Amino acid sequence: MDSPSIRRLRLSSSPLCRGLTDAELDSVLAVAEDRVVARGEHVFKQGDVADGLFFIARGRVQIVIDAQVVTVLNAGDVLGELSLFGGGHRRSAAAKAETELLVVWVPARPFRKMLEAWNVAAMKIVCNLTEQLTERFVALNEKLVAATRASKPEERASAVASWKL
Q1: pLDDT of residue 54
Q2: In the chain, what is the greatest distance between 2 CA atoms, to the nearest angstrom?
Q3: Contact at 8 Å (CB) between 31 and 110?
Q4: Dihedral of the CA atoms 85, 48, 65, 28 (nearest 10)?
Q5: Which among 63, 43, 61 has a CA at the least distance from the CA of 53?
Q6: How many CB atoms are closer than 10 A to CB 83?
Q7: Quick one: how many helices (H) and strands (E) in the chain?
Q8: 18-26, long-range: CB within 8 Å, 24+ apart, which pairs?
Q9: Is the dihedral of CA 34, 37, 38, 39 positive or negative?
Q10: Which alpha helices (DSSP H) does the chain contain, by range?
Q11: Phi, psi (degrees; rounded to nearest 5) at 164
Q12: pLDDT by residue for the chain (165 residues), tens digit each?
């Protein structure tokens, strides 16, 4: 296992951890687990139980829905973040390692316990996540409006196909 300062640095590279102090990052890392995922292997599969979020520390991840790559994520990005908001739902996409990966897995249950205890780090992460989700919804709404204004069915299909969530 890497030193606490290296693990802290990895986590702090994510916009989701913006504004966290070293002590707050350490409180998240106390419940987190570093995982290496080989190229071509899955971080998780579509339909798996959503049991936590993953910070990408190193590598590239393909996000795949129904065997179609919809986007690629890189170091600093986060996947599976919606798992923090409720238990038991299933993954809507698969995450497949395009390169060897190092991810930091934050399991949902311990994170929610941190929230229940009013842990400052958990609260800051939720605030940062809320900002990111708001930006995504605004962009999605704009794309939806543009797609519905397209006069030809092929233009609507093209507009919808370019959506990135």
Answers
A1: 96
A2: 57
A3: yes
A4: 40
A5: 43
A6: 24
A7: 5, 8
A8: 18/124, 18/128, 19/124, 19/128, 20/121, 20/124, 20/125, 24/120, 24/121, 24/124, 25/121
A9: negative
A10: 4-12, 22-29, 108-116, 120-149, 153-161
A11: -125, 120
A12: 688 889 999 899 889 999 999 999 999 999 999 999 999 999 999 999 999 999 999 999 999 999 999 999 999 899 998 888 876 789 999 999 999 999 999 999 999 999 999 999 999 999 999 998 899 889 888 888 887 776 666 766 666 666 655
SS3 state at 49: strand
Whether this model's pTM surpasses 0.90: no
Q: What is the DSSP letter of 52?
A: E
Token pair belonging to 20: 């966290």
Nearest to 41 by CA among 99, 96, 105: 96
CA distances from 8 to 13, 27, 37, 55, 79 (A): 9, 10, 20, 12, 18
107 - beta bridge partners? 52
